[in-house]
Amino acid sequence: MKPYTAKIEYDGMGSVIARQGDSGPRVMIDAHMDELGGMVRRITPDGFLSMQLLGGWLDQALVDQRWVILGSRGPVRAVTGIRDVHVVPADERGRVYARNTIFLDVGARDADEVRALGISPGDPVVPDAPFYVAGGGTRYVGKAWDDRIGLAVLLEAMRRTASGSHPNQLFYVATTQEEVGLRGAHTAAEVVRPDVGIALEGGVAGDVPGAHPEETQARLGAGPGLFLYDSSQLPNRKFVALVKDVAREKGIPLQLDLVQGYGDDSAEIQKAAGGVPTVNLVVPVRYTHAHNGVVDRADFDRMVDLLVAILQRLDAATVKDLRDFAPPAS
């Protein structure tokens, strides 16, 4: 953020708040920095570690994976083991391993060797999943697209608006602890006191085998998305109409989606400062909340174009209209 503004501050949760502009509506553009992970719960006498999971993991996604433990003496690699097929009874081979039966293996012989590595209860545990380019250069595979893709959109939009014109005070905010309760968005919104808010997230792509059409309608490569509903928030309908209008004007394909079992920072932003019109804009992602996700570069580029165009549209009169709930005069 530093090349694009000299005004950077932090809330008490560690969220990063970068400001551009000194007048006009206060627009909060949000993406969260945290990812799914865990922390060490306890060390067993024979050198294994149990893990407290952080965020919405599926038990199916945990076994036979690589992890990194952030210990006091530096990163330590680990694996979550899996029972050998040669000894698992036939009637158990199709079962999912419950999370409370899964242990981290760092290759230690006993608890003393674990401690000698600088590992102790409470140490963070993060997925180990290297990035690579697939699909002829247009599809990217990596971990934590929820919400690294949102952060990437935020940074690129910030670069563009640093040298372009806009009629607002832009607060680009990278928040903490979204995956465990939208906490950083709450505290950051108290600092920013926004007039309007835009959350940037990883969406849920449904273009994979076995997906049910009512779960999500988004597809990779079909453009950025706009959530009309999720389990944590309902967007401001005037703001939804504005996003649709800007996308149409700029020729940007826009996917509309409604996803249950999904929460995002816009839920906390919209409850701040007496009520804030918000929308949640998403870049579709395959396989969120797992070690390896997939995104399409074209969706990212179009999302940046859409966001910058929206920010240029949000002048004082437009923001005032978004916040106006008064019934028409009789």
What does this structure look like?
This protein is of the alpha+beta class and 330 residues long. It has 7 helices and 17 strands. The protein has helices spanning 111-116, 145-163, 183-192, 237-250, 266-269, 297-313, 316-322, and strands at 7-10, 16-20, 26-32, 37-43, 48-54, 66-71, 74-80, 103-105, 124-127, 132-134, 139-142, 169-175, 196-202, 225-230, 255-259, 278-283, 293-296. Helix 2 packs across helix 6 (297-313) and helix 4 crosses helix 6. The protein is globular, with a radius of gyration of 22 Å.
Instruction: Specify the CATH homologous superfamily of the largest domain.
Output: Zn peptidases
Tally of helical segments: 7
Q: What is the name of the CATH topology of the largest domain?
A: Aminopeptidase
| Gross CATH architecture of the largest domain | 3-Layer(aba) Sandwich
The percentage helix is 10-25%
Radius of gyration: 22 Å
Class derived from helix and strand content: alpha+beta
Short characterization:
23% of the residues lie in helices and 28% in strands.
Main features:
23% helix; eight-stranded mixed beta sheet; alpha+beta; Elongation Factor Tu (Ef-tu), domain 3; 17 strands; 330 residues; six-stranded antiparallel barrel; 2 domains
